[in-house]
């Protein structure tokens, strides 16, 4: 809890005094909302902590001086105090006679004085809450401790809980009251036993009656130990260590009394797939390690390894390769021209195999990286550069060196498209910049596809609008693409549930397609897209739906 | 306790056969027992320097004079449980205000005055809050003590009200004994002590100047002030966008834990200067006019006699305190008004009547609000909270929820009532946003279940904040920027229909679920008791665990002196100088000194000398840090100006200025430092503000011996805890059912007629902005009013006072996104797809809204003008979606609001 607990005493000689104080010192913030926006003064606060040493020592030491009587003192001047560490949270609970932090010293002092000599509690024993924004807020519980030598045979104490969070402190009233009462009761019971013992040995009442008018009656003129320490009143040699433990526990328990369960959204399909792939890869790697004794290098050829980070922007390898690259979908579109780009993107979205053949692997990989953003992660199977042809079931993005022949069944298939990257013949008179891809290369696009690519899918139509609008930054376009993909992924989920899990008929499926907004112009393409994208759903999601069905149906038929 | 729990939440889901019954199922009453209006008593007290303490109002001393019905005392007729709590007497004869008779205040007023003001009055200028528990008869007393503020014109006649009371005693000869003002003399001192200054402390107000006045702008307090201003500013800087995955829910909680942290010491906050106005005009410019006069308002609530009821009420009261306090502030404003208004009336008995009438009316309001807050029916199973807490009944809940929503959709099909209502709710109750923001962590259980936020969990453990507060903000939708709070009221004569709307909305108005961790009853080894193992035998042999013997110093560093000394000056903190100055200022009250100020002035030259010495000797290390130090010091000197018993503050201010040099001691070598410290210690008298004369010296070496040791480490005691669903949390209490009357607190509730709503709403919204129960500044308060009879949805705001055609607020434009969202979810449901899946789809669609808001925010970054057409073409955002998406975007990208405003 963002609070401190202190035991205070109204000394017959010195007035209200802070005896013992337990603070909670929190670790540095786990993660401020954002590095740049750390609360101003954060550094200063660190500095505060750095600099605490001197002033606080000055303080606590100063107040532990010999001028204080036994009753005003808890730990002897030489005592370093106590600490308990909550290993789970890193919070440290520190106890000293006075708080270590200078700004808290006056706060506690104020709370002590108000608790014992300003605020009025009916019956003088009991709980009060008081405070204001400037001095902090205090829950105080005053109580008496029996002392056979004190005036009225008792001494007055209070335990104060000080916090800045007014509402939290008030919310905690019932809890604090319940537990402080236990603490107080335990102190009082112990002291009562001591008192009774002392009274048996030497009944003070009689002593006092006999010396009724002698000056010795006045406590401050009695023998030196008139003001007895709480240790002596309870005959509890480890009192302060115990109180430290009690107070530390109280702070911890009060802080964790209420916990909240705050839900986040479920992870996106992309996240789930990435996690699954990563797990698979780890398992594979460890499998290899076992089989080959870790001897040979298990290089997974050129095939794409999945990065657990944001797939859209990450590409570690691209940096390794020099030469011109495609920077964004818009860049690719500018280089290829709107028509060729449309065709290319259409094939990508339909799940057809897209083959790029050329001498520059870096360029080809950059093209794939840009194009992959069009698809859900689960739909991407890429072989970025290979010396021989790979079948379509193995990859939908394939990069080939210029001399690799394309098998006839592939080049004649309507489900594949080929982009040949040709070097432009030119003299090296002008050193061209890397950006100017068109001056270096020529792109030939070919496919056996006879279907029109200009109607759908709806998703592509919308992306093209965004890409062609130069007012929109690349970031806006990529967020826009993210929205569109998520939107269509959600449709994919419904279709999967409907057709694969529930196995509904055609008529119903058509209804669902209509309500998903997949019908109308480009309907055929939309449906193809949905069916292709279905293959990209995470295993976790699919298996959940499959198992949930049984549970779900049961409740339906109940 | 268990019986209440059973009563409230024992009701399990009813069979799914009759979903229609669900929404109409009996709503639950909160309270376990009757609550009588007369249980609430109001006392207004004044503490004046010259005239002592006077009771200005005591509700127990007031009797209504009613010729027709002499026994009619509204407080004596408790409203029945199901019916509304009306103050009928006022409603009936509005033209003829009731007349009241003020009799002898109860015998306990003296004691109550003592408790309200304390035995020593404080000269702190802000308001002070106090809560007392009175054991017999069991009562809770909440007091607010205010400093007064006068206008120049009326400052001369501040006592007219008391004069009137006094003169009134003559108009009621039968009550002459001590009608009216009861003068209370200063309380006898609680304890006696030898020291003269101790008495001084009692006879003089404890001097606590308000911080805001004494500090200059670019001072070191900027450290904390900037933090609070960050919180107080509704619009953080555009750079602070949190679009990188951390939700505003997290951010709010983190800021709260920082803002309320003790480690920063007390910080001036946004509402410190709350005063009691005794005049219409703003504060008099003449400071001489300001007298030392305080007005305190106390609400005393009699607690139920039965132990369990008493316990339950207290749990409710303390967990809902922010709401009680907010209503108390309203009451205070009304009392202020009453005093100002009645002062304008010349004739004294009439003046008293006006005053009594107005205060009684305000008290009636307060009583009724509290009664309603405690007694009003609640939604027995709010959909969202039930879904996240009971995973076993999820399917059933989903089914019921969708069925209710379908019925509602059918009902208002033509007018798009549901779409409009959900547009408004999703736009303003923004807590849903963080529940759809995609998690980056793999799901623990199953794909469909939303994971609990681990970052928030970690934060709560290491930097505790108040989960109740967080929940309140969630419910009111205070997650956007600028901070807006919203409530939703559903009006309609058809109970069943209204309840259906409430039920459906309880899915969309979201908050976190709270768990309470308590120590099981009868646990033997209680960590709270320091002497448990000792109670049988108080001999030192049988010591309590943990023993200190195995203690070893640990590497716990809270800045050892070595470290502090070596740390470079650049890091020097203003805090360093605080304590010495603080100590020194306290010496003013030293009783041994015949003239405190003399002693202090004696200290001063030494310090300045020290400062010079320090800079001279070690100029290298001082270097560039010097400016920093000096710049940071001065304000903190002011900050420590709490000196008890010091009669003069101006003198101290001057001294403090002179002592600035002392702060440089961090750059000193140890020797110098010791000298400095010993000088300080010689001059100050320990921590005694109340003075003591036996000043002794301690050698600095001895002190250093202490400082270089490290604390003994003890294990942190652990204790078994039981977790249970928390009963008294806002997620349950602020989702109201079909209530007999309009309620100003509920995040959601239904009413049959908007009559009272129309009367109170604007004032309530304005009050919310002035005194938000949320305990943080609020830019705007809103209320969504859905009328199921007229099938209309309007949003009323605290910012728009006049609406065309006498209507409350503005009609809601249906967001196309929301419309398609509901339609497709309900169509899926109609196609007989598992309801569990439909709800998952609903969540997916809400996530789409979130993603869209991200692209809107990105689009707006750097834009000065919004091209609505472009938004539609490029981003698929229609103009009808913009208010919703902008509100959602403001939770992760605060700059959005600035651009769209």
From TrEMBL, chain A:
Q: List all Polar residues biased stretches.
A: 297-306
Gene3D superfamilies in the record: 3.40.50.12430, Folliculin
Which one Pfam family would you cite for this protein? Folliculin_C
The record's region (Disordered) falls at 24-60, 284-310
**Per the record, GO CC terms?**
centrosome; cilium; cytosol; lysosomal membrane; nucleus; spindle
Domain UDENN FLCN/SMCR8-type spans what residues? 73-538
Provide any one GO MF term from the record. Answer: GTPase activator activity
Amino acid composition bias (Basic and acidic residues), ranges on this chain: 41-52
Q: Which UniProt keywords apply?
A: Cell projection, Cytoplasm, Cytoskeleton, GTPase activation, Lysosome, Membrane, Nucleus
**Family to which the UniProt record says this protein belongs:** Belongs to the folliculin family.
- State what protein this is by name: Folliculin
| Species | Sinocyclocheilus anshuiensis
């Amino acid at each position: 809890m963002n609070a401190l607990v202190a035991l205070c005493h109204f000394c017959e000689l010195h007035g209200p005094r802070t005896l013992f104080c337990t603070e909670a010192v929190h670790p540095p913030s786990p993660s401020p909302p954002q590095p740049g926006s750390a609360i101003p003064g954060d550094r200063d606060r660190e500095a505060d902590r750095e600099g605490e040493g001197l002033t606080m020592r000055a303080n606590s030491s100063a107040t532990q001086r010999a001028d204080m009587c036994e009753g005003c003192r808890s730990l002897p001047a030489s005592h370093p105090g106590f600490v308990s560490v909550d290993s789970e949270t890193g919070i440290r609970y520190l106890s000293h006679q006075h708080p270590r932090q200078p700004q808290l010293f006056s706060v506690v002092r104020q709370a002590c004085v108000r608790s014992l000599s300003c605020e009025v509690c009916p019956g003088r024993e009991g709980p009060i809450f008081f405070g204001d924004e400037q001095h902090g807020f205090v829950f105080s519980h005053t109580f008496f401790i029996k002392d056979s030598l004190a005036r009225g045979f008792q001494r007055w104490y209070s335990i104060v809980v000080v916090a800045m969070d007014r509402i939290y402190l008030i919310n905690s009233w019932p809890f604090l009251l319940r537990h402080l009462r236990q603490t107080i009761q335990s102190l009082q019971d112990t002291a009562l036993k001591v008192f009774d013992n002392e009274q048996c040995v030497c009944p003070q009442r009689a002593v006092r009656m006999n010396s009724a008018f002698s000056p010795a009656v006045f406590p401050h003129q009695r023998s030196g130990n008139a003001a007895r320490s709480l240790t002596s009143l309870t005959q509890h040699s480890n009192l302060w260590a115990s109180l430290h433990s009690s107070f530390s526990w109280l702070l911890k328990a009060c802080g964790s009394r209420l916990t909240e369960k705050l839900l986040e959204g479920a992870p996106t399909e992309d996240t789930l797939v990435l996690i699954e792939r990563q797990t698979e890869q780890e398992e594979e790697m460890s499998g290899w390690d076992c089989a080959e004794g870790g001897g040979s290098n298990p290089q997974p050829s050129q095939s794409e390894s999945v990065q657990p980070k944001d797939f859209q922007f990450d590409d570690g390898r691209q940096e390794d390769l020099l030469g011109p690259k495609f920077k964004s979908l818009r860049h690719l579109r500018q280089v290829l021209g709107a028509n060729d780009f449309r065709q290319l993107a259409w094939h990508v979205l339909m799940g057809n195999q897209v083959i790029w053949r050329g001498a520059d692997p870096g360029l080809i990989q950059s093209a794939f990286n840009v194009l992959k953003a069009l698809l859900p992660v689960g739909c991407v199977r890429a072989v970025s550069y290979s010396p021989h042809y790979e079948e379509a079931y193995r990859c939908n993005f394939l990069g080939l060196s210029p001399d690799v022949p394309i098998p006839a069944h592939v080049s004649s298939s309507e489900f594949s498209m080929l982009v040949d990257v040709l070097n432009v013949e030119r003299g090296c008179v002008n050193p061209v910049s890397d950006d100017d891809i068109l001056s270096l290369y020529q792109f030939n696009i070919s496919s056996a596809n006879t279907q029109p690519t200009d109607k759908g899918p709806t998703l592509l139509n919308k992306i093209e609008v965004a890409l062609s609008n130069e007012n929109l930054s690349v970031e806006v376009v990529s967020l826009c693409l993210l929205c569109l993909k998520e939107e269509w992924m959600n449709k994919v989920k419904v279709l999967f549930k409907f057709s694969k899990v529930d196995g509904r008929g055609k008529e119903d499926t058509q209804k669902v397609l209509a309500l998903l907004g997949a019908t109308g112009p480009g309907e055929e393409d939309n449906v193809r897209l949905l069916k292709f994208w279905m293959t990209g759903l995470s295993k976790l999601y699919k298996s959940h739906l499959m198992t949930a069905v049984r549970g779900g149906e049961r409740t339906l038929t109940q | 306790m268990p019986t209440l729990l059973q009563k409230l939440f024992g009701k399990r889901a009813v069979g799914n056969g009759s979903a229609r019954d669900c929404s109409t199922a009996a709503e639950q009453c909160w309270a376990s027992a009757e609550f009588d209006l007369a249980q609430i008593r109001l006392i207004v007290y004044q503490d004046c320097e010259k005239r002592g303490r006077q009771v200005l109002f005591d509700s127990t001393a007031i009797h209504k004079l009613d010729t027709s019905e002499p026994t009619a005392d509204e407080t004596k007729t408790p409203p029945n449980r199901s019916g509304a709590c009306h103050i009928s007497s006022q409603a009936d004869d509005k033209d003829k205000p009731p007349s009241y008779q003020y009799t002898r205040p109860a015998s306990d007023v003296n004691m109550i005055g003592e408790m309200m003001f304390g035995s020593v009055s404080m000269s702190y200028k802000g308001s002070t809050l106090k809560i007392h528990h009175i054991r017999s008869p069991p009562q809770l007393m909440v007091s607010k003590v205010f400093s007064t503020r006068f206008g120049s014109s009326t400052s001369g006649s501040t006592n007219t009200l008391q004069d009137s009371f006094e003169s009134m005693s003559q108009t009621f000869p039968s009550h002459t004994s001590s009608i009216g003002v009861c003068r209370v003399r200063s309380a006898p001192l609680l304890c006696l002590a030898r020291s003269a200054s101790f008495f001084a402390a009692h006879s003089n107000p404890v001097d606590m100047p308000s911080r805001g006045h004494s500090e200059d702008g670019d001072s070191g307090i900027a450290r904390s002030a900037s933090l609070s201003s960050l919180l107080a500013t509704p619009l953080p800087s555009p750079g602070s966008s949190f679009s990188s995955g951390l939700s505003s829910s997290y951010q709010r909680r983190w800021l709260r834990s920082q803002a309320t942290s003790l480690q920063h010491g007390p910080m001036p906050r946004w509402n410190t200067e709350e005063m009691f106005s005794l005049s219409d005009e703003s504060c008099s410019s003449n400071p001489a006019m300001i007298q030392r006069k305080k007005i305190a308002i106390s609400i005393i609530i009699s607690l139920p006699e039965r132990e369990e009821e008493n316990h339950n009420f207290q749990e409710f009261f303390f967990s809902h305190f922010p709401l009680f306090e907010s209503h108390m502030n309203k009451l205070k404003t009304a009392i202020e008004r009453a005093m100002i208004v009645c002062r304008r009336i010349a004739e004294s008995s009439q003046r008293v009547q006006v005053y009594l009438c107005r205060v009684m009316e305000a008290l009636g309001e307060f009583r009724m609000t509290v009664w309603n807050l405690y007694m009003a029916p609640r939604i027995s199973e709010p959909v969202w909270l039930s879904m996240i807490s009971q995973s076993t009944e999820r399917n059933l809940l989903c089914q019921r929820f969708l069925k209710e929503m379908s019925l509602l959709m059918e009902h208002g099909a033509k007018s798009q009532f549901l779409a409009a209502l959900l547009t408004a709710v999703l736009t303003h109750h923004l807590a849903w946003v963080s529940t759809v923001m995609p998690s980056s962590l793999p799901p623990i259980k199953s794909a469909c279940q939303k994971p609990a936020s681990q970052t928030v969990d970690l934060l709560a453990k290491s930097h505790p904040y108040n989960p109740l507060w967080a929940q309140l903000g969630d419910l009111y939708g205070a997650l956007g920027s600028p901070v807006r709070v919203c409530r939703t009221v559903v009006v309609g004569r058809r109970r069943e229909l209204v309840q259906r709307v409430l039920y459906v909305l309880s899915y969309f108005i979201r908050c976190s679920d709270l768990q309470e961790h308590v120590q099981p009853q009868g646990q033997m080894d209680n960590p709270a008791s320091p002497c448990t193992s000792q109670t049988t035998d108080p001999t030192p042999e049988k010591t309590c665990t943990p023993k200190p013997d195995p203690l070893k110093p640990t590497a716990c560093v809270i800045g050892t002196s070595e470290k502090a000394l070596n740390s470079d000056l650049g890091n020097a903190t203003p805090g360093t100088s605080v304590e010495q100055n603080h100590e020194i200022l306290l010496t003013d009250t030293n009783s041994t000194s015949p003239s405190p100020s003399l002693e202090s002035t004696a200290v001063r030259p030494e310090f300045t000398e020290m400062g010079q010495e320090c800079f001279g000797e070690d100029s290298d290390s001082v270097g560039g840090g010097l400016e920093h130090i000096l710049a940071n010091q001065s304000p903190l000197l002011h900050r420590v100006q709490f000196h008890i018993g010091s009669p003069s503050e101006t003198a101290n201010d001057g001294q403090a200025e002179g002592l600035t040099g002392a702060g440089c001691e961090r750059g000193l070598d140890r020797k110098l430092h010791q000298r400095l410290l010993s000088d300080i210690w010689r001059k100050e008298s320990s921590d005694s503000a109340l003075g003591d004369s036996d000043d002794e010296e301690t050698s600095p070496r001895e002190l250093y011996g202490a400082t270089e040791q490290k604390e003994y480490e003890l294990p942190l005691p652990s204790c078994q805890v039981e977790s249970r669903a928390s009963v008294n949390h806002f997620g349950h209490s602020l989702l109201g059912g079909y209530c007999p009357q309009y309620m100003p607190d509920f995040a959601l509730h239904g009413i049959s007629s908007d009559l009272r709503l129309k009367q109170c709403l604007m004032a309530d919204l304005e009050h919310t902005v002035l005194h938000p129960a949320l305990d943080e500044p609020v830019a705007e308060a809103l209320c969504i009013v859905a009328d199921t009879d007229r099938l209309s949805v309007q949003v009323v705001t605290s910012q728009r006072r006049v609406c065309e055609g006498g209507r409350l607020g503005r009609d809601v434009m249906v967001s196309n996104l929301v419309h398609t969202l509901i339609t497709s979810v309900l169509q899926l449901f109609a196609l007989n797809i598992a309801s569990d899946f439909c709800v998952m789809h609903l969540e997916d669609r809400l996530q789409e809204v979130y993603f869209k808001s991200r692209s809107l925010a990105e689009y707006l970054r750097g834009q000065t003008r919004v091209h609505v057409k472009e938004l539609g073409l490029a981003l698929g955002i229609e103009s009808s979606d913009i208010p919703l998406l902008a509100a959602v975007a403001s939770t992760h990208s605060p700059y959005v609001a600035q651009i769209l405003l």
